[in-house]
Amino acid sequence: MIALHELDLADRVTTVRTLVGGTTPHLELMRINPLGKIPTLEVGDGTVLYDSAVIIEYLDTLSAGPRLYPRSWPERLTALRRHALGQGMLDCALSLLGERFRPEERRSEPHMALWRTKLRACADALEHEADALTASGFTVGHLSIGVALSYLDFRFADMAWRDGHPKLAAWHADFAVRPSVLAVPVVDDL
Length: 190
Known about the structure:
Elements: H1 2-6, H2 27-30, E1 40-42, E2 48-50, H3 52-62, H4 75-100, H5 109-135, H6 140-155, H7 166-176, H8 179-182
């Protein structure tokens, strides 16, 4: 949704709020996306796209304005690397969240510690890169990292990722007030 607003394409998409669960298949969604995951984008010719990276790259081709995927190297490589980092952070956070839903006696403390350690390492790496994040144009990498940090705020406020990361915290504060971010409604009932 942030990408749609960044690319000035939000008015060209009809959003269908769809809830998918961790244990219950969403059979209607699975008719067009066998993975049953969101986001899913059905384009005018019936083509169905899934996975944020695929959808955003497709949307990027439709925009007449600034691109989220830079065309030239090394800018493109930097955007892709940052995107992978943000997606990896979300993978760790979702794994950690899934473990929290398990009965306490079945939780894996070593796995939870591993995912927390990886998330702290990501915040440490991003603290060193915060000046470059601020100085470079907004790309899919910025979007991915910003969303990942926002998700940590939403689900894992106790991790306090801002502690010891003042530059990253300042960068994220700027991300959080971008018009594209503010345009996306917060869904807090999930």
